[in-house]
Specification:
This is Methylglyoxal synthase. By secondary structure, the chain is α/β, with parallel strands linked by helices. About 40% of the residues lie in helices and about 15% in strands. It starts with a strand and ends in a 5-residue tail after the last helix. Bound molecules: 1,3-dihydroxyacetonephosphate.
Length: about 150
């Protein structure tokens, strides 16, 4: 299948919405490997009763960076990140870094419920012949540096 693992992340004012969305889509999420930042993960594990959900550190304590590292390593195919557009966050650089790395590695990112609905119901989710194109960074990694 095209998408096998999903990271789920939400800021505090958005956690309720993410948990609701995840419950509505429990069947679609069932075959997928789930990752989440610490507090989001705790709520989702309880609500979805998914003991197999991989909870990382809480976002401000390094969890966003852990998710970013997994995206760079190709372990996460889709990021659902309900970030809060109305409240400043102390770890804003980590949030930007996570969104940057997801853009860099060309994985789909849903930052609100409407987009998450589009993505999760996309035919590409289960299409074995579809894979997001992984970027080729060989020009960059092989560049001349003196
Ligand atoms: O802060 C977050 C994302 O930036 C989410 O972290 P928690 O899930 O630990 O609250």
């Amino acid at each position: 299948m095209a998408v096998t693992s999903v990271a789920l992340v939400a800021h505090d004012n958005k956690k309720k919405e993410l948990v609701e969305w995840a419950n509505e889509n429990r069947t679609r999420l069932a075959p997928l490997r789930l990752y989440a930042t610490g507090t989001t993960g705790r709520l989702l594990r309880e609500s979805l009763q998914r003991d197999d959900l991989h909870s990382l550190l809480s976002g401000p304590l390094g969890g966003d960076q852990q998710i970013g590292a997994k995206i760079a390593e190709g372990e996460i195919d889709l990021l659902v990140f309900f970030w809060d557009p109305l409240e400043p966050q102390p770890h804003d650089p980590d949030i930007k870094a996570l969104l940057r790395i997801a853009a860099l590695w060309n994985i789909p990112v849903a930052c609100n419920r409407a987009t998450a609905e589009f993505v999760l119901t996309s035919a590409y989710m289960t299409d074995d012949n579809h894979r997001s194109q992984k970027p080729d960074f060989s020009d960059y990694t092989g560049r001349d540096v003196h």
